[in-house]
Structures are given as C-alpha cells and as structure tokens.
Amino acid sequence: KEVAPQLAPEEIAGPAGHFEALFGARMVAGLVAVAMLCTLASIGLQKMAAVDRYRTDVGAEREIRLADGSLAHLNTDTAIEVSLRPDRRFIRLLRGEARFDVSPDRRAPFVVQANDATLRALGTDFNVRLRPEMTEVTVIEGGVAVRDGEAPPRTVTAGTLAAIRGGAVAMTPLDRAQIAQRIAWGTGTIAFAGEPLAQAIEEVNRYRKAPILLGSPSLGALPVKGLFRVGRSDAFIRALVRAHGLQATFSRDGTVMLAQNGR
C-alpha cells in the first residue's frame, strides 16, 4: 500500500497561505511599531508635564525664571511646585509667599493653586501669601480670576487685595503706598506704618528661626513705624526699645522676650 507523501503546511496552503503568513507578520510588526510610538509619546508627555520643586529656608529669598519666561520670587520659608505644558502652566503654592510676574501666552493659561483657591492670571503681576486663616492675593498689574472651591470665579483687578476663605472673596482697594508696603519684602525690607506691635512681631518672626515674644499681651497694641532690613531683626528690636522704653531679654536659643522696662 502506497503512502501519500507528507507535505509541509506552506506547500498545502500554496500562494494564498504565503500571503496570509506575510500579512500576519506585517500586522505584528505594525502593532509593535504603534506600541513603541505610544510609549515614546507617553514619555514625551511625562517630560512636558514634569514637576519642578523650588523652596527657600527661613530668612531666605529666591528669584526663579521659569522656562516660559515668567518670574517667580519666593519669600522666606516658601515652597512651590511648577508644571509647565504647552497648553497649561500650573503652579502650586505649598507654603509661604510668592510673587509672580507672568509672561503672556494665550495658548497656556497661568494658574496658581493656593489651598482651595485657584488663581488664573489675566496678563498680570501678583503676590500670593498663605496665612493660617486665609489666602491673600495682592494684584499689582493686570488682573487675576479667583475661584475658591465651588464658588463662582471673581476678577481681582490691579490695586486690590483679595482675602480668600471658605468660598468667600473679600476685596479691598489699596493705594500705591499700601501696595509698596505689601511687596517690600521683594527688596529685602519690611515696612510698618503704625501697625500694632503684635502684628509687626508676627511679620518679623517669619524671617527668624527663634521668635520674638511679648512678655505681656498689653504690649501688642503699641504702634510700630519704620523700614527694616529683612534678616536684621536686631535693628527692629533696638528701635522698639528706644521708641517704647521696652526691655529685651535674650535667651540662649535666640528667643527674645520684650517687656516693659523694669518688669
């Protein structure tokens, strides 16, 4: 009995089988290529959306020129995260205070997140400060669209201070002297124009690792006037001693206690 010769699968399939095998190989190669392109695109997007982090120590300041040409000036003990993409520029203020001089780009909105407040620059120069009880925005030029949580957005124009908390935005107009006072830290100074001593000490303590303390709450209402260099709180203390007849006691850890002279 004769046995039929065994043929290889490709011989049985003939030309059509060869075509199908070739077509399948090309499909696999195409899928691999698409997967590689998707991977490269994903890596590219990750690079574009990379987060850069900047910070300052207590008593230090820092100016940063961002990749889009905008300037971010960080005050003492401040931290920010920066994510720049072709369609959006996003800054998160984690703590402290920062001033932003924004480079115009209609394709990429400049947005700052500060606690629950979302601040969108409208061709602007503005200052943002995180306080324990609220977020403060001082607009120097242009305008800022402010939204806190789910509340409708409001526009804060130049020469205005916005206090933001719990969905409410309270706006107060400022004159040039008041604006200059609020952003004096950018020139390395702190300006006081009659503020109570308790408030002035709170401001100066932002630049000190060891605090200035009041020996009596009654001293907190004393008025303070003057221009002082950041990081030179010794001059601030001497001015208080002269102006109000106070006594300054220095501790080993750098803490300073202010009290009425002779008490």
Quick structural overview:
By secondary structure, the chain is α+β, with helices and mostly antiparallel strands. The protein has helices at 9-48, 176-182, 197-205, 233-244, and strands at 51-55, 62-65, 71-74, 79-85, 88-95, 97-101, 110-114, 117-121, 125-130, 135-141, 143-148, 154-157, 160-165, 168-173, 189-196, 212-214, 223-229, 246-250, 256-260.
Question: What does this 3D model show about the protein?
Answer:
- It is elongated and about 95 Å long.
- It is of the alpha+beta class.
- It starts with 8 loop residues before the first helix and ends with a strand.
Q: How does the SSE layout of this entry go?
A:
Elements: H1 9-48, E1 51-55, E2 62-65, E3 71-74, E4 79-85, E5 88-95, E6 97-101, E7 110-114, E8 117-121, E9 125-130, E10 135-141, E11 143-148, E12 154-157, E13 160-165, E14 168-173, H2 176-182, E15 189-196, H3 197-205, E16 212-214, E17 223-229, H4 233-244, E18 246-250, E19 256-260
Parallel strand pairs: 5-7, 16-19
Antiparallel strand pairs: 1-4, 2-3, 3-6, 4-5, 6-9, 7-8, 8-11, 9-10, 10-13, 11-12, 13-14, 15-17, 18-19
Task: Please describe the biggest sheet, giving its number of strands, its sense, and whether it closes into a barrel.
Answer: 7 strands, mixed
Order of SSEs: HEEEEEEEEEEEEEEHEHEEHEE
Q: What structural class do you assign from the helix and strand content? A: alpha+beta
Task: Report the mean per-residue pLDDT as an integer.
Answer: 87
What distance lies between the first and last C-alpha atoms, to the nearest angstrom?
127 Å
Strand content: 35-45%
Q: Tell me the helix content.
A: 25-40%
> What would you call the shape?
elongated
Going across the major beta sheet, what is the strand order?
Answer: 1-4-5-7-8-11-12
Uncertain segments: none
